[in-house]
Amino acid sequence: MDEYGVAGALAVAPLLAAFDAAAETGNFTRAAQRLGVPQSSLSRRIKAIEQALGVALFQQSGRGVTLTAQGHALHERTRGLVGALDDAVRAVRADADPDSGLVHFGFPLTLGPVSIPSLLAQFHAGAPRIRLRLVQAHGEALAEQVRAGTLDLAVMIPPPPDLPSVPLGRQRIDLHVARTHPLARAGRVALAELAETPFIANPPSYQLRALLDSWCAAAGFMPRVLFEITEFDTLRELVALGLGVALLPAAEQPHPDLVIVPIDGERDREIGLVSGDHRPTLAVARLREFLITRAARISTV
């Protein structure tokens, strides 16, 4: 297939369409009418495919034509291919339409309940026919899908350096403690004060965990992580129960039993809109521009 290439596949498509129509109708005139081409064009296409294969595909039968043995063999193997190709082309063109296309869009677990859904609702109001297939996952999972081409766009925190991205803002990271924790009334905490404090955190593959480890190492200690969990709502619930503290972005829906305490230094991370290396469809470009113009809305969460 590599030697044949896409150009060859596209070139043979009208020849197969002519062959399929003639085989179905048993008449070159009716086949040409079905395809909306002159009969002379259809005859040339049939002759071209016969010359390419080196066999006759049709034989005269009264005022029409019938398939030869080789023609029957070819039709058995290609039956339905033309219709499937036509369906595929229509689907791809529809997905590329700026008003009714399809966009595969991903966003992180920390921007789920409010900010991204509300932005998508606004986008849908202005482009109601564009379909969105949504994926919510942690950063590396989103990056892998963008690289593989299964996601067109993704909001990521932070964006990976190997993918094209546009900055949308920054997300602050603070200490989260239970209301009953001794630090709940602190105005600000130095990270070094937490050397003996138990932490609740994501697994090491998560970027927030990497930040926790690196920031604590810079403060002279390694965090004592008692619980590791991927799900942020459950993580916050464990903190609220007094089982440990956590470094997290503020929840979009605040937990009543959690207190947020600022920690020393610049403790934030970049929010970026990431796209693949492929050329975007018009629908993808439309969503991309919408999100860029609404960047302030994302960066305030």
TrEMBL record:
InterPro entries: LysR_HTH_N, LysR_subst-bd, WH-like_DNA-bd_sf, WH_DNA-bd_sf. It comes from the Bacteria. Residues 15-68 form the HTH lysR-type domain. It comes from Nocardia rhizosphaerae. This is LysR family transcriptional regulator. Belongs to the LysR transcriptional regulatory family. Keywords: Activator, DNA-binding, Transcription, Transcription regulation. It holds the Pfam family LysR_substrate.
